[in-house]
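Repro:
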Amino acid sequence: RLYQLAHDAGTVRMHLLEFAENSVDFAHFGPLHGKMFIPWTRVTVPGITIKHDAVWELEANPALQHIAYFKNSAVLKVLGRDLAFTRASALITFYGPAGVVTFRFTIPDLGEILMFQTHLPIAPLEQRVQFRWFAEPKIPRPLVSYVIGNWVAQWRNDIEIWENKIHRPKPLLVQEDGPIHRLRKWFFQFYPAGPEAESRSAS
């Protein structure tokens, strides 16, 4: 039997596009998400970092063009050395414009944790964010809390950027940046059709 828990993260002043773009902004993973945090806090753990290997993909089925995937493989590094046994993977699925996102955290030899992150628009540029997760019973609950708590701690690192950044319709990108233009083209399908849709999508 699965067990479940939930966490209400309150409101964030942001456009949903910002959360979606975050998944393809590969260049920020190291500087912003490369540190290990004590779960549910902003306190870092000295000497431990996280190495991310991420990709972003569209659903191949033409009938499911509203779905996109962010895949991340992460491993802990202690004093610069990889700890191979800590490697874990996450499959993040975007259903539409990031209103509902699912996370599947795979723990080797133990099973999966399934988490739902939802964004409920309650005002222009204001989202109420909630997390609800389910875990296989053989995964120790402290480990489940650690995995989810570390994700929430990492997610909170982005909030200050989301709430203060300036949207650039034509951002200057370098080779190491992720497929931001490709994501925006995918995201554009969720805006109302019409001659002003493109300008609205850039606001």
